Amino acid sequence: MRILVTAAGSHGDVAPYTGLGVRLAEAGHEVALATHGSYAEAVERCGLAFRPLPGDPQGGGGKGGMLRRAKEFVGELGRGIAEAAEPGADVLLLSASTAPLGWHVAEALGTASAGVYLQPVEPTGEFGPVVGGARSLGRWGNRAAGRAALGVVDRLHREAVAQLRARLDLPPLSGPAMRRRLVGERWPALHGFSTALVRRPADWRPGLEVVGNWWPAGSGELPDQVEEFLTAGPAPVFIGFGSMGAGQGERLGRLAVEALRAAGRRGILQAGWAGLTADAEDVLTVGQLDHAALFPRVAAVVHHAGAGTAAAALRAGAPSVPVPVTADQPFWARRLTAIGAAVAPIPFRDLTADRLASAIRQAVTDPSHRDFAAAAAARMVKEDGAGRVVDLVARLGRGSGA
Question: Is the pTM of this model over 0.90?
Answer without folding.
Answer: yes
